[in-house]
Queue: 4 jobs
Job 1
Amino acid sequence: MDEDIEKLQNILKEDPSNFQARRELSILLVNKGFNEEAEGNLKYLIKYFPEDAELYFNIGIVYEKLKNFEEAKKSYKKAIELSPQEDFYYNYGEVLVELKEWEQAVSAFKKVLNTDTNDGNCYFNLGVCYYNLEEKNLALDAFQKAVQLNPKDVFAYFYLGYIYQNDGLTNFAIENYNKVLEISPDYSWAYFNLASIAYKNNNIDDAKEYLKKTVFYNPFDIEAYKLLVKICLKQNETDEILEIIYNALDKSENGDLFYCLARIYKYIGDTEEYYDSLKSALSHPMSLTFPKEAVKAEFDKLTEVLGKHEDIEPENEIEEYSEEDSETGDEEYNDSEKDYDDEENYNENDEENVENDTEYEDDEYDYDDENEEYSDEDEIENEEELDEYDDSGDDWNDEVEE
């Protein structure tokens, strides 16, 4: 443990009533990530100093780090009641975002902007709130102000791109996604959304290249693999998509990827590999987000057919199960059907890598924007799915041209 922490702890052993030492220790514990210990010390201090706003602010930080957002909200609110400071309002607003209390969060961030009109983070958070309140124009204004004040705000650019994409303003969407990639070249979601735009506009080669970059930076973006499979099979490039999937499996075995392999092998008529891939998919249930019962039924049917020494005919189309028949895998692996909320935080590089979480719809690739979000760019963590593409009815059930 840190020497300064040990020194303060020794002081408190000799004199437990040394409040200054306990206050300093609490701050150090928070900064070093010893949240439970910090909570205990701060509660002790609050008993003796119930009118100290800073103590409530500090314990609010602890609760926030412990993901106890209701307690954090109460603590920040108490701190504001005792001393309405800019930092208190800002943290209060962040917690309200976590709790999806959008209107109250707007009020909190506006309080900050009353004293600091150049707080880019506040404008970003306002944009998130307005977006979730379906105030699109206000959201656009806030995100534009955010990038004005902070030209490196990758998440604000991404939101702008996504809103423009939904509005059919493709050129503006592409411009903002490219801004994202200038700042963060490994941002897989931007590649995926560019791929979705290219695919919708029938620029298949461009879509394919963007998708390859998507899976390079996010090797388990299952939706990207689904579309890559579709494109490669239509272009009769079976070897290429098999190589891409096997490269991903070399890094980590994944039930969804094994199932993608099974669909390819069924399509090309390789019964043995089809059987083995289905078996492997079922042997990795935690990372299989395709409907397990349907996959198991498919495997059982294939086993029965092989037992009768019947041939499996190559197929001309890739079938897909409907959303209503699906069941999800473990949340840790559930990349193809998981919603993500703006309350979840995303960051890349030195913090947490943003991943492309998507919701797969029946009969078309569709990404639901109503449940997506990011929070403050200081903490942005992969609800989120600001990814959406409409391939005009193309899905696994579409006929694949040989």
Job 2
Amino acid sequence: MTERYNLTVNTGREKDQSFVEKESAVIEGIDVSGRWNRMFVPREIQDYDLTNMHKLTAIPGAESMGWCYQCAQCMPACPVDTAGGDYGPRKIFRRLELGMDLLDSRDLWLCTTCANCLRVCPKEVDMIKIMPVARAAAVLEGNVPAELLEMFQNVAEYGNPMGQSARKRAAWIRKSDAEIRVLPKDPGPVDVLWFVGDFYAYHGRGVDAANAMARVFNALDVDFGVLGADERTDGDSQRLAGEPGLYEELAEHNIEQFKQHEHERIVVSGPHAYNAIKNEYPAMGGEFEVEHYTQFLADQIDELKPLLTGSFGNRKVTFHDPCYLGRHNGEYDAPRDLLEAVPDLDLIEMYRCKEQGYCCGGGGGGMWLDGFAAEQQSERLSENRVKEAVMVGADVLAVCCPYEVSRFEDAVKSTNNDGKLEVLDIIEILDQCMGA
């Protein structure tokens, strides 16, 4: 005899679930009558209101959000979840099932587009495509964190996220002790068109790295020039943060400037500029040979080594892989080759490195969302990373992204590691050991 019961029981899994159970059941001589043969009636996915899921996956580029099958491999890979953000593609998918509108949710802005979840996802749920298009839709609806809106306004008005005058972009050049050719004032062919970038041009610690780069270029007799005040931000962060129109304006401007000055290659200071010029600018009619500065210098390692006559003092150095140089563009060796060329430098790896490297928190617009992120997470991603560098016994945290010096120096202070860990751009390390 079979009966259907609709009972509420209090044993966890059984609560509020329907089941089928035989009052009398004997299997191979074993009596399994009663609850021993109970079979629960499945709860169908159709029971959920998927309106907001369909709203998201209907946006071109966001289709893969619907492919998630809740395996959870993304969760330990997500840096935001690791930092206490209660986050990750699996959790976003589940919240969409339960009715969350991503375009009006804090979850839309926490993703740093680091690509670590995509690296492990068997269904290829691609947050690097999903987030920019979803954010663009939210921007059109007026749902933008105040910090990000201020950055958009600064870039639109001044061509840089700091809101600094475009004329001041070349101020560091006038004060530099290196020979730097500014192409709009001194035109003519060059081997290297150096795309300096915002942080190297405007931020105090970035200017330190920019001067170091110019001195290293001079020492190697590199034939290079810069755009000076004619340069604008590369636009990659603005595109990822949901402003494709602003990105297109920036890309068009920079492409026009690149084409005006004859050059063999573009060398960039930062991974985001590298990603934009290499992977995004071609669709706008700008196809150029582009290298990150570590790639360019690693190709000249034989000429560089004899110039590194100073010792680095046997200091232990660990390297932070930038997401947009590493996972996004597959470059892990060039930065390490440069560090290993430095005399008396002890290179050690953090636990999370190369393909599994941890995110600094600055990608995907995160550079301008620190206040917003701090309200959602138990710690900043940069703080988590600094703790790891200290844990492996590093004296120096080496970076090669303009965002990271300031992010990690702040994190060193906020984690009470001031005096224990120094943050240096690789180009600064090379400069310190050159001709000393």
Job 3
Amino acid sequence: MAVVRYSRYEATLDDLDMPTLMGMLQEHLLASGFEDDPFNPDPDAGTDLEALYRALAQVLYDADLIPDDVLREALDADDWMQSELGGMVRSLAERLEREGFIRATGGEAGSSGAEGEEEPEGRFELTDKAIDFLGHRALREVFGSEGGGAVGAHPTQEQDAGVEVVGASRPWRFGDALNLDVSETFKNAMLRAGVNGEGVQLEEQDLQVQQAERSTTAATVVLLDTSHSMILYGEDRFTPAKHMAVALAHLIRTQYPGDTIQFVLFHDSAEEIPLARLAQARVGPYHTNTAGGISIARSLLRRQQKTMKQIIMITDGKPSAMTLPNGRIYKNAYGLDPLVMGATLREVAACRRDGIPIHTFMLARDPDLVAFVQRVSAMTRGKAYFTTPGNVGRYVLQDFATRRTRTVN
């Protein structure tokens, strides 16, 4: 009988293509700050070239792609970046930049100082190509088994005169596309003229049009909680939320081209963040300014001329901060502070007036938080999901793809 032998694939850096390397770097690039010092957060951590070099060295080590002699030299060196391993990771960083996955600022990704000189300072950011790559991988991981929704548009509960026929026709109304149901139209004319009538003339009341599904466009703002509770208590809740966010962005950009998606981080304060910076966002500072986040999200959505507008909020904590009229941040981490809650619910009420539902994905199950989330959902006619970091991505993407919204004209 034939015997099949399996052995470890002996790869070298020359065999390593950059998409494979990006896949290996995914967890590092989407890091949340879980390993950072929670009492001394650095919002720019993970975006400097030194962090990229360390991540490259780590994935090479994990994949057993560093020769033993090179690894020993790096471990014995005072500055491992001046060793052969340092040259290897610089070369890989340069290839990533050359192939359009990263963009170095304040220094070249592949530059190296002379021996004994301090490494030139510099940072890097992910390009649109890298964001699409990571988004595709995240989408496949959290949603691949479920498939997507309707391609390019969101179905509604109403039917309209259109091209893609879905069933019975209806009388023509002013403004409808003239997609006539010919047989029903002539049937109406003949019934009106009578069996013995001389000749049949069409009139406006005879016209019947085919009905089709009406699709619409949506504007979405994702509110991501970056307060420190998202990485405390021995659990990293922010990394799965960020995976979901880049996956949702990829889904919208590829299957719903008429839609828009924007991202807002909320912590002590709140700010909009572009997609290019989302992957490298980290947790911090400490508190949860839900009111500030909703205020910015509502402002962004008011500028959008879309039929559907919605806020997707992912959080695990109670509102514990608010921005005062003078710009100062008021904080109270103990209990549901009446001042903070009042400011938050005023923003929720403003969303209700604007017709913006808030769909909340809560990663904690404290009774007070459950009651707060249920109140927000009831006020804005949104949905509340009490989920875990392990399945938040699936819940969000399923809800986005399958939600049916009635459009009133």
Job 4
Amino acid sequence: MNRVKTLFILNIILFFTLVNSLKAFEVIRDTEIENFTNDILEILLADTNIEAENINVYFINSKQVNAFVTGGKNVFINTELIIAAEDYREYAAVLAHELAHILSGHIFRTSEELANISNKAMPIYLLGIIGLITGASEAGFAGLMVGQAAVSDTFTYYSRTQEAAADQKAVSILCKSMIDASYLSSFLNSLETIVLNTQSKSENYRSTHPLPQDRISWIQLALDNNEKCNYENDKELEKRFNLIKAKLFGFTHSYDETKAVYKLNNNQGLYANAVSSYLNGEHDKAIKYLEILIGNNNSNPFFKEIIGEIYFMKQNYREAIYFQTNALNNLGFENDLYTMMLGNYLLSSNEKKKINDSIYYLKKSIQLNRMNAYSWYLLARAYALNDNISLANYATAERYFLIGERSLSFEFALKAIKGVKENTPEWYRTYDLIEILKKEVSTNTN
């Protein structure tokens, strides 16, 4: 990780203690990737009784090409898998395969085993904004945060029977969704080349999936039973996917590698190089590329979000607020990250009149996702700057509760209850926290 990127991360998460950092991994939250993936899931799940919003998808920053599911409806996708996919239909095929595991009820790990693995990793946001997300102590979510090191060391292997069934069901899902299912085979063919070039036989054996050549024949059998499945691609989805790949490449690969792979003669090249230049500290160059992109498509919220973030890093809060406001308006749907970022920019401007606006957006972010611990942190700061120490203590108690610091959460809840206005939602919630934590903290103390 280069020096600028490292300083960026440390600047945002300075108040957190990194535990067992050698085995930490990065769970990437990015609105553009999440939104695109959700759109694909809606297409794939249209003929099922499961809603896309009920599938939890987590993106792991990893150079290994992999995807897997855990108990329940939880899908993990490595960033390099998205980059390795040549076509959005290959990515859709992977999602269909993982959905097949879920729809078929394949369970790969007990909650106790997952909880043990979760202790090896600390998830963070990257891409867009960085902050700690929930779950260090919550039995349900903590068990899902599987560190990449833990995955390669201890993850239960998919059985051949389950893989064959999932591949064949994935073909059925894709065909019913009018997506050419042959792209599952094409992706596996590409993956086989990657495996042969980059991994030893030992690593292949320890993969969460059998080798690609062992699966292609299973898929072909299913394709033979689905004759009408060679649908045309969706040009809009393809365009969106290529931009996502470019952005991910710029974030996860070196500056020199990005320049070599992506030229400045199309939107993908501009996007990849804008991100890479930003992380390399060349902010003015990144802004130049993004301004061209915005000129090419003024309604794209994701270009504006990144340029706003760059201005934020340059401490030009006026421009950061302007572009993030525009990004939020262009987004077309409510999003906890975008509202959190706008709240953060307003708060950082150090203008007294903007604090109330900051509180509004941060509370909105939390309404959309109460598990966003960084929004709670920012809200506590905003309340403190607004001279409302009781609510600042309450927000801090919520944050500590989410990140597993139960004693500190209890301590701040006790402080908050002395001053929070009675019969307000914050007052009731503070009492709830105290009652929840009272026994636990007492037990841990004894």
